[in-house]
Design a protein that fits this description.
alpha/beta, Nonspecific Lipid-transfer Protein, Chain A, 7-stranded mixed sheet, 7 strands, 19% strand
Length: 164
């Protein structure tokens, strides 16, 4: 099992790769994004409060599915879709990556008026993008959204610049 750290977690591992193979393409993208987000103190606080399993499933490429196991500041990343997932997000890889750019809070309303936001809404309505478990776990999906949203770009850029 390989471990990855954000470089500022005092030697503690933050992301672990699950048993078996190295993370697939989607898993590597998620790992890089989480390591960058964990450098931002506000995002790290959200991460430390999360206990959640999220499965990301591109239906055209099931071999590229990935599951994130969040456990109070630690994340285990596994290839494949877990049947135990609290939240299951299925859609083509480009849509899954687009979701990571949706801002949290009131900024989301502005975003939804833009072309990229409208295409996400269209994908949900056409069922090209499916999010299962959000109604059963509204607080968990809110924390996951807060963690993955871009947030204050100046904060994120500043934290990443300091860590280099």
């Amino acid at each position: 099992m390989r471990s990855y750290s954000d470089g500022a977690s005092n030697g503690k591992e933050m992301i672990r790769a699950g048993e078996g193979a190295e993370p697939n393409l989607l898993g590597r993208y998620l790992r890089a994004m989480l390591l960058n987000l964990a450098r931002v103190p506000e995002k790290k606080k959200v991460l430390e409060r999360m206990k959640l399993i999220v499965s990301l499933e591109p239906p055209q490429h099931p071999d590229q599915s990935a599951t994130l196991f969040f456990d109070r500041g630690r994340v285990t990343l596994e290839n494949g879709a877990s049947p135990r997932a609290d939240i299951r997000i299925a859609g083509e890889a480009a849509m899954l990556m687009m979701l990571s750019r949706v801002p949290f809070g009131l900024d989301m309303l502005k975003y939804m008026r833009k072309y990229e936001g409208k295409s996400l809404v269209a994908a949900i309505l056409s069922r090209d993008l499916r999010i299962r478990g959000a109604l059963r776990h509204p607080l968990k999906i809110a924390r996951f959204s807060r963690l993955m949203s871009p947030g204050d770009r100046a904060l994120v850029r500043g934290a990443i610049g300091k860590a280099r």
